[in-house]
Design a protein that fits this description.
Helices cover 12% and strands 19% of the residues. The chain is α/β, with parallel strands linked by helices. The chain has a domain of 175 residues. Strands 1-2-3-4-5-6-7-8-9-11-13-14-15-16 form a 14-stranded mixed sheet, with helices on one face.
Length: 376
């Protein structure tokens, strides 16, 4: 489990130096003096001599348990003398894995000043309970929160659902990383003012459709990871305008068929575009930098049209230190005269890695003569 893994890493924390004449001081975790360990069980609080405080909680309960009372009584042991938590890991366990009667509020998380928050293992079923996170959940953490990870787990239900109060994610000036699994983005979009400090955003098993107008500004976002549902077949242009310095876009393993013309326009800092294992038959790469690894393996691309691919290919072959390429394994390419621009004119088939023609010939093995022979 997450908390056991983190605890194990912390208990084994040390630094090793290659020189036998230089030994780093060992960092031993110590049980926090306050609050008292027995008062916060099943939570464990550890301090290190690097002034890092780590708290891990594993809540086990049955379907009818009053989780709110249990957790509020536990967190009442934290006050202004001991409530600074650099990393807080909360794992819900038990047969029911339902927290329908529990809300993160001013009496639980709201008592703490948190740096990194990981919440996993819970399950909120449709129509049950209050909002999992209230507007007061981070009343003392607005200026300190840097990482939020929320990962529910329902054994018998898909998709999983949960909700935030309207202002839960608003005004978090230090937030750099946000991961939300099974979050209903369409029902509850992000704050309109966006996230000025956010650098990494991950939305897993979440999206079915998106409108560019729904995306708030994220001026420092460098990495966007989404797991589109099978029902999301079309990605419109304009979605990336909210992310002017985006370097990595990952949208693997869904039902995407068409990426709109001009979608990558303005993504001049791009380094990775991962859209493998979708159903893409049309994608325009214009706008990507020549340093971009484009991962399009296992899609439905049959033609490498000049309009969609030539600007990127020319950027790669005309840039001395370019590292860009297009991974194309598992696409049913039709290798005909349509490839004259690539094989004969530019002689740049090597930019497409793993590309195979429908007859089994590797694209990189085609000669200009092979293609010219197919042209009228």
């Amino acid at each position: 489990m997450l908390y056991l893994l983190s605890l194990g890493l912390l208990l084994g924390l040390c630094h090793a130096y290659p020189s036998s004449n230089m030994t780093a001081p060992k960092v031993y975790p110590m049980v926090c003096e306050s609050p008292a360990p027995e008062a916060i069980a099943p939570c464990t609080c550890l301090d290190t001599d690097e002034d890092w405080r780590y708290v891990a909680c594993a809540f086990e309960f049955e379907q009818g348990d009053d989780v709110t009372a249990m957790v509020e009584a536990l967190f009442a042991n934290f006050d202004d003398t001991n409530n600074k938590i650099d990393e807080l890991d909360i794992v819900f366990d038990g047969d029911a894995q339902a927290v329908a009667n529990f809300a993160m509020n001013e009496n639980t998380l709201g008592r703490l000043e948190i740096g990194d928050l990981w919440v996993s293992g819970f399950c909120v079923q449709p129509g049950q309970g209050p909002q999992l996170f209230t507007d007061t959940a981070f009343m003392k953490s607005h200026d300190s929160l840097e990482i939020i990870l929320v990962s529910p787990h329902c054994k018998y239900q898909y998709p999983q659902t949960y909700s935030f109060a309207p202002n839960f994610l608003a005004n978090l000036p230090a937030l750099t990383s946000l991961k939300l699994d099974y979050y209903n983005y369409l029902a509850q979009p992000f704050p309109a003012e966006g996230f000025a400090s956010l650098e990494t955003l991950e939305l897993d098993y979440t999206l079915s459709d998106l409108n560019p107008a729904d995306i708030p500004p994220m001026p420092n976002l460098k990495k966007l990871l989404v797991s589109p549902l099978k029902t999301m077949s079309y990605i419109p242009a304009g979605l990336l305008t909210a992310f002017p310095v985006l370097e990595e876009l990952h949208a693997c393993c869904g039902g995407i068929e068409i990426v709109d013309t001009g979608f990558f326009k303005g993504m001049s800092n791009s380094r990775v575009v991962g859209m493998a294992f979708n159903k893409i038959n049309s994608i325009d790469l214009t706008g990507l930098s020549p340093y971009t690894q484009v991962q399009l393996q296992q899609n439905a691309i049959t033609q490498l049209t000049e309009a969609n691919f030539r600007p990127f290919v020319e950027g790669v072959i005309n840039t001395a230190d370019a590292t860009g390429f297009i991974g194309l394994d598992g696409n049913p390419l039709e290798c005909s005269c349509d490839l004259k621009w690539l094989v004969s004119d530019l002689q740049a088939a090597h930019v497409f890695q793993g590309a195979m023609c429908a007859d089994g010939t590797a694209l990189a093995d085609l000669t200009p003569e092979d293609i010219n022979a197919q042209c009228p």
